Amino acid sequence: MLKVKSVLVSQPKPETEKSPYFDLADNCKVKIDFRPFIHVEGVPSKEFRQQRINLLDFDAVIFTSRNAVDHYFRAAEEARVKVPDDMKYFCISESTAFYLQKYIVYRKRKIFHGQQTFADLMTLIKKHKTCNYLLPCSDILRPNIPDLLKESDINFSPATLYRTVCSDLSDLKDVNYDVLVFFSPSGIKSLYQNFPNFKQNDTRIAVFGPTTAKAAEEAGLNIDIAAPQPESPSMTRALELYIKKANKNCKKAKK
Predict the structure, then answer these.
(1) Which of 76, 77, 89, 74 is CA-nearest to residue 41?
(2) Is the pTM for the entire model greater than 0.85?
(3) 3-state secondary structure of 182
(4) 168-189, pLDDT tens digit by residue?
(5) What class has domain 41-164?
(6) Quick one: which H or E segment has residue 62?
(7) Degrees, nearest 5: CA angle 208-215-40
(8) What residue ranges of the chain are covered by domains with CATH 3.40.50.10090?
(9) Burial zone of 151 (CB within 10 Å; 0-12 exposed, 13-18 middle, 19+ buried)
(10) Tens digit of each residue's pLDDT (9 = 90 or more) over 95-146
């Protein structure tokens, strides 16, 4: 195993200094850079109108991310629609629910949230089966979400309000890293869209999740680091184990 000195994480730099990535960098004496390989762009209002969705036809909204929150209220503003005060909001997590405070008076609204998974949220949604739900989403919607709603006979309509696009990575052309870390198939797509002649050579590839692993394999990449695994439920833990083995002088990083 070749020594690891540098890692590029294909996500934005953490906003808090308490990120385990910073602990990993300090304890293992490696350079960790962050650069989003993908970003989100809102669907233009003209394109949204072509979906023939009237925001006022719905009495409940399902939010699976902060992006969904942002672009729902953006779409409402562009359509000059005042979101009713009695609108019900169903959020995938507590942090997503709290994020609503950016747009509404939180304590005066009907807000429900799950723990972290959509399956958790379904328990709450099924208690309000008479609602007509709007599902703001990106152009890449995980099939398990509409599947769960359909299985429970929930009346819902998806609305594509934003899309995931590849970022311009031209400034990385002459930058080499020992490890590239990916979290989605879109990240793999962005790598080859920006660098169509990319050769892995000695670069180690780290992937999170089975769909990312599948995309990497289909692109002809060799996967060296994969998470989650029983011994490495997080990407930082998977990186720690690999770097520790490769460098053999790495202090134990914080979980």
Answers:
(1) 74
(2) no
(3) strand
(4) 999 887 778 999 999 999 999 9
(5) alpha beta
(6) strand 60-63
(7) 75
(8) 6-37+171-247, 41-164
(9) exposed
(10) 999 999 999 887 777 999 988 789 989 999 999 999 999 999 999 888 889 9
